Batch of 2 targets.
Target 1
Amino acid sequence: MDTGQDLKQIVKEKYGEIAVRSVPASSSCCGPGCGCSEEPIMADNYAGLVGYVPEADLGLGCGIPTDGAGIRSGNVVLDLGSGAGNDVFVARRLVGETGRVIGVDFTPTMIQKAEANRQKLGYNNIEFHLGDIEDLPVESGSIDVVISNCVLNLVPDKQKAFAQIHRVLKPRGHFSISDVVLSAPLPSALRSVAELYAGCVAGALLRDEYLSLIQKAGFRNVRVTKEKRIDISDDQLAGILSPADLEAYRRSNARIESITVMGEKA
Ligand SMILES: C[S@@+](CC[C@H](N)C(=O)[O-])C[C@H]1O[C@@H](n2cnc3c(N)ncnc32)[C@H](O)[C@@H]1O
C-alpha cells in the first residue's frame, strides 16, 4: 500500500503533466477519471457561465461548486486544488470588485498556469498560492466560503482536509464541494492502481463515509445539493486494468458518483 506521501507524489506528477500539456477542456492523457481521457468524463460544461475563462478550464472537474453556493458580493472565497483557476475565475464574478478569491494547489505548474491566466486578464482581486490542503497556507477564521472541484478524493488524509476547511472558515462560513464518491467498495486490487488514484476513482470514499467525516469535523446542516452518476466504459478502463481486474470491478457494483455537498461552520 502506498503511503500518503507516495500518493501525493503520484498526483503531483500527473497534474504537473496535465498543466504542461494543457489542452483546454479536453486534456488528453491516460486512464479514466478527472481529466484523463480524450473527452472529460466527469466535468460539467462551463461554457456560458459568467466569468468563465476557457484557458483555465482543463476539463478536470466533476461538478460546478460555485453553483448555488451562496457566494455574495464582498466575500472571501477559497478554492482548494484550484488547478488552472477555472472555479476561481467564476467565483471572482460572484464576489465582485470588493471581494477576493484565493486558489491553493500543490502542483507548481498548475499554479504557474493559473497565475499566467490571471496576469493576462489583469485581475488583482484573485491570488494563487502553492500549498497542501492538509496544511493550508491560509489564516484561521478568514474565509467566507470554501469551494473545491474534484480534489478531496485525491487527498490521502480527508479528515485532516475537513479539519483544515473548518479552521480557515469564519464563524458561520460555509463550503460547497464537488467530489467523487463510491456506492460500494472497490475491489482491493484496484485501490492500488496509481492511474485510478490520480484519475479520481481509487481514492474516493464511500458516500456515507464521506458525509460522516464532514459531520465529525464539526460542520452542521450538511446536505448533498447535486449528484450524478459517472460511467466509465470498458474501453476507457481496458488501458489500465487487466481483464481480470476489469471483470472484478464490474462484478463489484461499485458505482462512481459525483456529488456536490454543502455544510456550515457553527
Ligand atoms: C482533478 S484536478 C481539479 C482542478 C480544478 N479544481 C478544476 O476543476 O479544474 C485536481 C487538482 O488538485 C490538486 N491537488 C490534489 N491534491 C492536492 C493537495 N493535497 N493539496 C493541494 N492541491 C492538491 C492537483 O494538483 C490538481 O491541480
Target 2
Amino acid sequence: MARLAKGRASRTARITAAMRYRHLLGGVRPLVFEDRFAHLFLDLPSAVVAVPSPLGDRALGQLLGPVRGFEGEVLARSRYVEEALGPRLAAGLGQVIVLGAGFDSTALHHPDARCRFFEVDHPATQAEKRAILARQPGLGANLVFVPVDFAHDDLAESLLQAGFDARRPALVSWLGVTMYLPQQVTVATLVTLRRILAPGSVLIFDAYPRREETVLEEQPMFAAARALTALQGEPMVGAFHAAAFARAIEGKGWRIADLMKGEAMRKRWFGAQPRVLWPPRSVSFYTLEVV
Ligand SMILES: C[S@@+](CC[C@H](N)C(=O)[O-])C[C@H]1O[C@@H](n2cnc3c(N)ncnc32)[C@H](O)[C@@H]1O
C-alpha cells in the first residue's frame, strides 16, 4: 500500500474507527457494536465526520449515502468477532491475534489479564497506535505489539518471537484486510499461520467479492468503494473468488466452519437500523477452524 510504504498510518483504519465512533454517539439503539475506545484514535478530519451533526449528516448522506452499507459491514464484522470471542474468553481462551489491527479496540474491551492480545500491523500504523495508548495509563496492559509488513516479514516467526504460544489455541481476528490483498496472499497467510496454530484455534475474516460474484445492483457501490480507497492511497483489490478460495485451502489444515452473507447480517443485527446502513448482500464473513 502506497500510504504505508511512505511510513504513514493507515487512513482506512482511521476511517473505520470513525465509523464505529459515529455509531456509538448517534446510532439507533440497540447498537450493532459498541466501540468505547474508537475516539482515542481519531484525528481532526475523522472526528468531524464521526460526530453526528445536522450539517455533517447531510453532507454524509449526499456524498457517502450510496456507500454507507460498508459502514454497516464494519460494525457487523466487529459484532461477529465479539460473538465468537465472548464465550471463548469465558471458557479460558488465553491468546488472541488481531491481524491488520489498525485502531481495533478488541483488546481494550477485554482487559482481563488472562488473555493476551497480539496485535499485528504494519509498523507505520502500529507506531501511531502505540504512541496514542502510551498517553492512556492503564489501557492496553494485555496487548503485545507485533510490527509486521505482510509483504516482507515472516508472520509466524514474528508472532513466536513476540511470545505467542503455538501449543495453546487462539482466536485470530482478521478484519478489513483481505479486500486489499490478492487472493494468493490471503491463502499464503493462512498457510503461514497454520504452522503456529494449535487444534481448537479459529480464524475470522471478512471478504468482498470479485466483480463476477457481486450482486448486480451492488456493483456501483463496490466500484465507488474501490475508487474512494484508491484516493486514500490504499486501493481495494476486490478479487475474492469464493469457490477458488474453498479449493485453495483444501488439504492445508483449515475447514470453513461458518460463512455468513450480508442478508443474514441484516436479519440478525440490523432490524432496528436505518436501511442505509444495511451491509451489502455480497459481503461475506468466514470462520475457519483448524483441522
Ligand atoms: C482497513 S484497515 C482495517 C483495520 C482494522 N482491522 C479495522 O477493521 O478497523 C487495514 C489494516 O491493514 C494494515 N495493513 C495493510 N497492509 C499491510 C501490510 N502490508 N502489512 C501489515 N499490515 C498491513 C493497515 O496498517 C491497517 O491497519
